[in-house]
Task: structure prediction
Amino acid sequence: MTAPALLIAAGAARIPVLGLGTWAMRGEECAKAVADALALGYRHIDTAAMYGNEREVGLGLRASGVKRDDVFLTTKVWSSDIGAGDLQRSAEASLSRLQLPIVDLLLIHWPNPSIALKESIAALCDAKRRGLTRQIGVSNFPVDLLRQAVAISDEPIAVNQCECNPRFDQSPLIEECQKHGVVFVSHRPLGKGSLARDPLLMRIGAADGKSAAQVALRWHIQKGLVAIPKAARRQHLEENFAIFDFELAEKEMEEISAMARSGR
Ligand code: NAP
Result:
């Protein structure tokens, strides 16, 4: 197995640049994928109250034997629950399902225009002060909303988790995140698996004996992003983690970035 995943700084937090996404995994499949991933060297797991799998994520974490403090664990509060009081209750319910006293990162899963942002962000800060999470952040926040969130938050916004991949250009939002020291976490980094069949990525990877999926993930990391691909299959888990032993040349990075502009 390759070297352990690198870390990226988000204020006081150190986030492993490659994590395991767990959306749509349930039951035994989820617990096993989490345990397998941790055994392979992953140290970052992404879940959410809405995924209905926090119990299994907790089981997988304990089954792996990896120390809790060595794993960066994110969960999220669903958009209907981001009002004052509801958000803190959602976080407490997540911890109870995970059977953990604290998570590393708590995110607002989606903005909700019918709840004042100020109220949601204050509740998120309160959750941190109460010791339910080490860091706070947001997800699916566009540029303007991110700017507002950063301006009104008493605590640093560590992360904005949004869809991004070589076919889904997020350059303006990434720039805005970087301006505020917010780490950009790419969800759906493999385009739900479709990028694994992309001819350009396959061609670029061939020279290094790497797959299209590995090239796509490496592209994220070289851009300074965190990627959280979901993989239920062990072969995919292994493949996605083996991206720390090669490097994409600048020209290759540009070619890959141009995929979105060319409508591919
Ligand atoms: P994704 O990670 O882009 O793609 C997952 C799909 O790719 C699965 O079908 C998986 O197959 C396949 N795959 C994984 N590795 C592969 C490889 N090496 N070769 C070929 N296929 C491969 O899509 P996603 O699950 O939608 O997004 C990732 C994570 O981001 C989610 O699980 C979730 O944690 C997070 N997310 C967050 C939000 C949000 O609103 N914040 C929204 C969407 C997703 P197998 O599972 O069969 O291995």
Notes: The chain has one domain: 7-195+216-247. The chain has a mean pLDDT of 95. The first strand starts at residue 7 and ends at 10. The pocket of NAP is lined by residues 21-23, 46, 109, 139-140, 161, 187-193, 196, 213, 228-233, 236, 239-240 (CB under 6 Å).
